[in-house]
Specification:
Blueprint: H1 8-19, H2 22-34, H3 38-66, H4 70-78, H5 83-115, H6 123-130, H7 134-152, H8 155-182, H9 187-194, H10 199-202, H11 205-218, H12 225-230, H13 239-267, H14 271-274, H15 285-300, H16 303-339, H17 343-363, H18 365-394, H19 396-399, H20 406-417, H21 419-433
Helix pairs in contact: 1-8, 1-13, 1-16, 2-11, 2-13, 3-4, 3-11, 3-13, 3-18, 3-20, 3-21, 4-5, 5-7, 5-16, 5-17, 5-18, 6-15, 7-8, 7-16, 7-17, 8-13, 8-16, 9-13, 11-21, 15-16, 16-17, 17-18, 18-20, 18-21
């Protein structure tokens, strides 16, 4: 008998955990500050409503309706030919997790170094040493071992139980650091920069595509993770209500992360090192700020800095882990259905294969960048585009699974038939141009 989530809240927290990851906790804040502040927020929210939520509903409807993983679910509604889209979801998740776990390993390592009081004196040199080679391999394998253990324990005892514990902790930590940041001198300048209303900066095509991509990626769409979780959802659950809860919580964490990060940046005197550098020769990017600039600042704060650094990287690690287990579950569910493997066997062998592929980005950071550009940008958008076309134009049966009023259903169908494919085509085009 197929497992299900034991409660509505268990599914909701697991799905939110899938959506909330490193991209929400840092990349969203970074883009918002650089691309118009409050103007970018308005653009992002609009694209979440008109692009993200429609595709989210599509994944939920296909997964819950079929009660199967990506490959079998697409085959169930569209026949053997459409099962290839399910294969794309599995491949995309496989590749993303193979390098995502490397970055998550860096995050966990920095959290440990903050906890034991051993933040480096030279963060740039330290990051260069630990971001590739044997140190990166060890933490990558350790992170994957934790993810495999959780997924192997099952939906209720593993994924649901972990989400019920980790997600409240993540929310509390983010709120706590945000509150602490509000008490620091310079916090007001951080808020002012983060939420500056600059339509001139926001109304550019590259900003539009960045906001659309962030709205899409932050909801964990295009790789079958939400679809897979929905396949374990009870039939009487409202997928429309879950879609709204997931979207609101996802945005809420991302927004709070900005309220956490920018007061710290300004209070610690890091604004000139990070702010306004995108596209310039001084651009340190999100990775540079996370693993070079911020650890240096935490160290200068003394004992309080080590505690803040520990909590900061703990929040990032929890977000990374809940996202990782959802991606791994896509591969595990598919292996269980197609190969008739037990959950433990599927989790172990999938984890081993992903870990082996992850050795390449762990050893060479350049490979990590290539894999992210290909799978993390292009494949996700292609998958989302194909799913919106499938649900909007092909699968009438999956549309019936969405509990919307007739008027809202018509609006949703129109969105996934016309605007969503157009927007995702533009994002895909720019992703290809930037490869």
């Amino acid at each position: 008998m197929r497992e299900t989530f034991s409660s509505s809240s268990g599914f909701a927290l697991a799905a939110i955990g899938s959506a909330v990851g490193l991209g929400n906790m840092w990349r969203f804040s970074y883009l918002t500050a650089e691309y118009g502040g409050a103007a970018f927020l308005v653009l992002y929210i609009a694209l979440t409503v008109f692009v993200g939520i429609p595709v989210l509903l599509a994944e939920l409807s296909v997964g819950r309706g079929a009660g199967k993983g990506p490959i079998d679910a697409m085959k169930h509604f569209g026949g053997k030919r459409w099962s290839l889209l399910g294969v794309l979801f599995v491949v995309t998740g496989f590749l993303i997790l193979s390098y995502y776990s490397v970055i998550a390993g860096w995050t966990a390592r920095y959290g440990w170094e903050s906890l034991v009081g051993s933040l480096p004196d030279n963060p740039a040199s330290h990051f260069e040493q630990i971001s590739q080679g044997i140190p990166a391999v060890i933490w990558h394998l350790g992170f994957m071992a934790i993810a495999v253990t959780i997924v192997a324990s099952g939906i209720r005892k593993g994924i649901e139980r972990t989400s019920l514990i980790m997600m409240p902790i993540l929310f509390i930590v983010v709120l706590g650091i945000a509150f602490y940041g509000s008490t620091l001198d310079g916090a007001a300048s951080g808020y002012r920069y983060y939420l500056d209303l600059n339509w001139k900066a926001a109304l550019r095509i590259e900003v539009f595509t960045a906001a659309a991509g962030q709205a899409f990626f932050s909801l964990s769409l295009g790789m079958g993770a939400i679809l897979t979780y929905a396949s374990y959802l009870k039939k009487e659950e409202s997928i429309t209500r879950h879609a709204l809860v997931i979207a609101v919580a996802d945005f809420g964490v991302a927004f709070l992360a900005g309220l956490m990060v920018f007061p710290l940046i300004f209070a610690l005197g890091l604004s000139t090192q990070i702010i306004g550098t995108v596209g310039t020769e001084n651009d340190v990017g999100s990775i540079g700020a996370l693993f070079i600039t911020l650890p240096e600042a935490f160290k200068t704060m003394g004992s309080s800095g080590y505690w803040i650094g520990t909590l900061f990287f703990l929040a990032l690690s929890l977000g990374a882990l809940t996202s990782a287990i959802s991606i791994l579950e896509v591969n595990v569910t598919s292996a269980m259905e197609l190969l008739s493997w037990s959950r433990k066997k599927a989790a172990l062998l999938s984890g081993v294969l992903i870990s082996l592929v992850g050795l390449a980005p762990a050893c060479r950071i350049e490979i990590l960048g290539i894999m992210d550009a290909l799978a993390g940008n292009l494949f996700l958008v292609v998958g989302g585009f194909a799913l919106s076309v499938f649900v909007g134009w092909k699968s009438i049966e999956s549309i019936r699974n969405v509990d919307l009023s007739p008027r809202l259903r018509m609006i949703w169908i129109w969105l996934i038939r016309v605007p969503v494919p157009i927007v995702l085509s533009v994002v895909a085009f720019y992703s290809v141009m930037n490869l």
